[in-house]
Amino acid sequence: MAKGTTNITIVDSSAGTTLGVAGDNYRLIVTGAQTDGAYSCFDMLIPPGGGPTPHAHPQMQEFFYVIEGEVVFKTEAGHTTVGKGGFVQIPLNGGVHCFYNGSGRMARLLCTVMPAGLEDVFNIIGQPVRPGEFLPIPPITPEMQQRLGNLKQKLNQQIYPADYLD
Predict the structure, then answer these.
(1) What are the chain's domains?
(2) CA gap 65, 83 in Å, rounded
(3) What is the pLDDT of residue 153?
């Protein structure tokens, strides 16, 4: 009997590129190149004090599942602490948001975006690291400001000042 083909993807826990992004550690588990742009998925390690600055990507849905620790999600509606087992959905046109790890221990999130494309942002602003390697937050140099400014034009990603949602 002939066996059919399958489109099931199985990813080993050590597979995928790991990037240092603004002091955090993101492993690209599945990218848009592997899903025909349908979605991408990331394993995010967020050290104490870590997390992205406020940002918006209106043409993308984003889903977070907290695997370990806790983070504070900040939106224009307020701030909410989300612990292990908690889930956050940022819908299309979901507005400005960010999160930070306000605890004294590591947080770990599983993040899925639809359609794919957020990995392109990470590749622009991050740099390859070994799993578990945390780089210092890079200074906002004129070159970095140019790279961040290009995100809006290239990927419809808008970055806001760090205190925008305070």
Answers:
(1) 18-159 (2.60.120.10)
(2) 9
(3) 67
